[in-house]
Amino acid sequence: MLIYFLVGYLSPFDGCINREQPRYHNLNPPSITFCLQEPKKKYFSLFPQTIHVAIVCAGYNASRDVVTLVKSVLFHRRNPLHFHFITDSIAQQILASLFTTWMVPAVRVNFYDADELKSEVSWIPNKHYSGIYGLMKLVLTKTLPSDLQRVIVLDTDITFATDIAELWAVFHKFKGQQVLGLVENQSDWYLGNLWKNHRPWPALGRGFNTGVILLLLDRLRKLKWEQMWRLTAERELMSMLSTSLADQDIFNAVIKQNPFLVYQLPCFWNVQLSDHTRSEKCYKDVSDLKVIHWNSPKKLRVKNKHVEFFRNLYLTFLEYDGNLLRRELFGCPSEADHNSENLQKTLSELDEDDPCYEFRRERFTVHRTHLYFLHYQYESADDSTDVTLVAQLSMDRLQMLEAICKHWEGPISLALYLSDAEAQQFLRYAQGSEVLMSRSNVGYHIVYKEGQFYPVNLLRNVAMKQVNTPYMFLSDIDFLPMYGLYEYLRKSVLQLDMANTKKALVVPAFETLRYRLSYPKSKAELLSQLDMGTLFTFRYHVWTKGHAPTNFAKWRTATTPYRVQWEPDFEPYVMVRRDSPEYDRRFVGFGWNKVAHVMELDAQEYEFVVLPNAYMIHMPHAPSFDITKFRSNKQYRVCLKTLKEEFQQNMSRRYGFAALKYMTAENNS
C-alpha cells in the first residue's frame, strides 16, 4: 500500500519539519524526506507521504530488541519513514551508529534526550518493569517537533506483518474529537477479576493497550493534553499510589473520563501475546494479522495456541539480513545526501576492469555496525593507567572468548564479524556462558558481513574506537595473554612514563601446536616449555621477520625493558595510548594488515620497548579462509603487493624524507 499526497486541493497531513528543534540530533544517512508546503499554483502532483514513527528506547537490551521491529517495518514499507527515538545516552550511541552505517534510503532518524524528560514523569510511582521510560509516551506532544501533526507510537516488542502505511491510513477515519487510536486490551486486567482484591486503574470496559498508538499531536495540543493527563494522574494516585502498567494506566484513566478522545482500532493492529488474552479472536487467518505485540515479560515463551507461528514470524525478522533492506523505493525521488553522493563518486572513480577492483572497493564499503550488542558497564580506574584488550573475530573463533576472559580481567573491546543469523547464535552462546555473563566490562560490537573479504582492519578500528581507557593492548583473538598481564601492563604505564612519551610496549609472542596446553604461569616455566619444544617463538618457522626484532635471545635473560628498532615486516603485539593511529583499511583478509600499522607507529616516532616479563601464546586453530585464498590465489598475492606499494608511496607523501627507509627496506627485502 503506497500512500500519496494529492497536492493542490488536499491539505497535507504534515508540514515541513523544523530541523532546528532542540533536544534531538539529526542523522544524515541516504534518505528521502518530503517536506510539503502549500503550492503556489493549483496543480496536482503525487508525492509519497512520509510516515512518522515514535519509539521510546533505553539501554542495551532495548536497543537490540528494537532492531527486529525496525526490520519488520522496513521489510513491508513502500513509503519514506521518519523515526523519532526517545533514548537514553546508551541507546542513542548504539542506534545512531547503526542507522548511520545501515544507510537505508528514504529513512530519516531523530533522537530526543530521555534524560531531559525524566523530570516530567519522575513524580509518578511506577511498578512496571519498563521503569521511568515506560511513562515517557505521555509527554510526546511536548517532546516531538511542534509542527509534527501526527505520529504512530510503538513499543520495542512489536513485529509488523504488513505495510505500516495501512495503519497510517487509519488516521483518515478519525472523526470529531478523536485524537487517540488504540486497540482494546485483550486481557482481563482492567476488569479487576484476575485475583482476589485485584484493583486496577479505572478504564473504559476492558481498557486499551498502548503498545500501538495513533496520536493526532496537533489536536492533542489544542486539547491541552499535558494538563489533562497530569490532573488525571494526580487524582488517581491519591488512591492508587502507583501505576502497574506505566503510561497505559494513565491513558486509560484519561479515556475513562473522556471516551470521545479514542478511536478504537481493529484488534489485528495489536495482537497481544501475553498469557490469558483474547488475542485469538483478532484473526481467523494468517492474512488477518497486521501487528504482533510480545507484551508479556515471558516474550517468546508466552502461552498461545498459535505461538509457534508467531515465534517463527518474529525469528524471520530477527535473523533477516538487514543489508537487503538498503533498497530504493520506487516512485520516490531521492533527496540529495552528501555522504551517499561522496561515496558513489569515490566508487565511480575506481576502475572496474582493474584486477584489484574488489580489494579497492572494500576499503570504502560501509558495514552496518551495532555497538554494544550486550550489556556493558565500565568503571574507570582512579590512577589513569587502565588498559583495554582490543581484538576482532568471526564465528569460528567464539570458543576463544571464555579463555581470554579467564586470562584478562580488565576491560575488553571486541569487534565480531557476523551475519544477522550468526549474531543471534552468538547472543545465545554468550547468554548461556557463565564466564561471559559474569563479565560486564566486555564490549561486543557487531560488524555485519558484506562483501567477499574479511575486513580485519576495519574491525580493529571499530573495537579501538570504543575503548574507554587511556591505553589499549592491541591483540588478536587466538592469543591467550599470560595470567596477570593486565596488572603488569598497568604498572608498566607508570614505570615507563607512557602518559608523556610515545611508546609502543611490545608483548613477546609465542605459539604452541598443541590444542591442550598447560599454560605457563611464569616466565621461567615458559622458558622451560620453550626449551622442551612445547612452545616456539611465534611464526619462527614460516614468518621469522614478523617478530625477529623483538630479540627473543635477549628477552630470555632480560630483567628490565629494552628498546628495539623497527625492521621491515615487523608486526609485534603492542600496548599504546588510545590516541594512536588507526589501522589502514585497504588491507583486508590476510597479509600486511598489522605490518602497515606498526610502520605507521614508527613513522610517528613511537619507541618500541619490549617488556621483559610479559608474554602471550597463540593457540592452534584451522587455517582461516583468507590465508587459504592468499596461498592458493596468485592474483590475491599480486593485489596485496600492489596495495603494499601504494601504502608505502602514501607514507612517503605524508612523512617525507623520514619515510624513505620504508621504500628502501622493501626493495632490499
Assembly state = single chain
Largest sheet: 9 strands, mixed
Beta-strand percentage? 15-25%
Which stretches are low in confidence, meaning pLDDT under 50 for 5 or more residues running? 4-45
Mean pLDDT level: 86
Instruction: Estimate the global geometry from the Cα principal axes.
Output: elongated
- Widest sheet: strand order? 14-17-16-15-18-24-20-25-23
Distance between the termini: 64 Å
Family: In the C-terminal section; belongs to the glycosyltransferase 49 family. In the N-terminal section; belongs to the glycosyltransferase 8 family.
Membrane topology: Single-pass type II membrane protein
Pfam family, one: Glyco_transf_49
Keywords: Glycoprotein, Glycosyltransferase, Golgi apparatus, Membrane, Multifunctional enzyme, Signal-anchor, Transferase, Transmembrane, Transmembrane helix
